[in-house]
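Comment thread on ticket #2218

A.B. wrote:
> Attaching the input chain for the structure job we discussed in standup.
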Amino acid sequence: MLKRASAITYDDLQNQIIVADKTGEVWSFPFPLSPTIQQTYDKIKALPLPDDKNPLTKATDERFLGQFLLGHSSSVVCMCLIDTRWGRALVTGDRDEHIRISVYPETHIIHAMGLGHASFLSEVVPLPEGGIISGGGDMKVISWDENGNINAEGSVEMGTCVRCIRQWRDMVFVIGEGYVFVDRG
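C.D. wrote:
> Ran it. Output below, let me know if you need it in another format.
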């Protein structure tokens, strides 16, 4: 089950928190809790806490309110939800330089893969006009469409990896270590 959260996003349409862990699993949890789920949660709180003799190891355990969405073969380190022409997608990036674009909430359906990085991913951000932008340990900043095709590519010249990517109006800010790269479109 969830060992340690490595990436978190929120689905405001379905009131779900989506959490990835270091083992590569992605789960969704209801939030805020509906009255029905709150009653279930109140019952769960009365159960004994998990311990060595009574571990919380199965998703079928009534104490676990999560729903498994997808898994990677390595740690999922970044993710986001995007709106596409064909619906919604959950985009996940792992430490083995893979970007997975999955149909959401039917995340067992992989719509596309983004294979353009040569090192771990550190950030994946949705673009308002569609698609995503990603960055990672190879110092590359790549703009992708929702089908996993590269639209544009750039790089940060200083530091060891891309730390943060944010879009504001018509600009994209990429932060490395003490360096900001701004692209106007």
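A.B. wrote:
> Thanks. Noting for the ticket: The domain at 5-183 is CATH 2.130.10.10 (Methylamine Dehydrogenase; Chain H).
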